[in-house]
């Protein structure tokens, strides 16, 4: 993997065959002072974590990595939603460059290939106890690279797919290591351009929910049509009675047909 890493910003790269969670490990490194760009990569995770406290199945054939980002190395006024959405664009760019596949984004930061999830992103902050705010962010990315679908728990098999449906289907000249390196580079590049028009425009272009009927989950689940995404990455939806609602990332989850 290190042979493909061409960013001088990745100062420490830690590789594990198996680990509990790369996010957990990267947070420990961040607390111990790891610099911007420090990355933990694993072949499998025994305790992979997803959003909303869920487990994240991490069988062999996937790429599991977590990158430490330092706010002082990013644009001022950084808020987590900007990082998590920029990371989605970064992964999509890397996959397009290395694997020549176009990924769509499901608001807020799931990546889909032909209607099924291929990548999830979990961003976690480390509180700055002395000065307030966050001292570091950890962006964790799990991408199904060449995992056969049978390797996933039965209840999620119908919702997930891999970029390539098996190790023998990976095209010559492409590899997990090349993609992992490209993801690191793109995430670090995007982190220094947070809030740029280019990232927002690309994010909206890749959002396949726009114009679609969705279901807003939460305390009072209801149907709606996704209409737009604003500069703060809020989702604007129209309800069946014609009224509009503005949804913030993290407050609701979305289902679609
Ligand atoms: C989600 O879809 O809910 C987010 C999943 C994020 C999974 C990645 S895999 C690498 C990193 N380590 C973890 O424990 N989680 C993230």
Order of helices and strands: EHEEHEEEEHHEEEEE
Count, helices: 4
Number of strands: 12
Any idea of the CATH class of the largest domain? Alpha Beta
Please describe the biggest sheet, giving its number of strands, its sense, and whether it closes into a barrel. Answer: 7 strands, mixed
pLDDT < 50 runs, ≥5 residues: none
Bound molecules: biotin
**Cross-sheet strand order for the largest sheet:** 1-2-3-7-6-5-4
Give the percentage of residues in beta strands: 25-35%
Number of separate domains: 2
What would you give as the CATH superfamily of the largest domain?
Answer: Bira Bifunctional Protein, Domain 2
| CATH architecture verdict of the largest domain | 2-Layer Sandwich
Given helix and strand content, the structural type is alpha+beta
**How does the overall form come out from the CA principal axes?**
globular
Ends distance: 38 Å
How would you state the average pLDDT, rounded?
93
CA radius of gyration is 18 Å
Which percent bin holds the helix content? 10-25%
CATH topology of the largest domain: BirA Bifunctional Protein, domain 2
Question: Can you lay out the helices and strands and say which pair or pack?
Answer:
Layout: E1 13-19, H1 22-31, E2 39-45, E3 62-69, H2 80-99, E4 104-106, E5 110-113, E6 116-127, E7 134-144, H3 176-191, H4 197-206, E8 213-216, E9 222-229, E10 235-238, E11 244-247, E12 254-256
Biotin binds at residues 21-23, 45, 48-51, 54, 56, 64-66, 110, 120-122, 140-142.
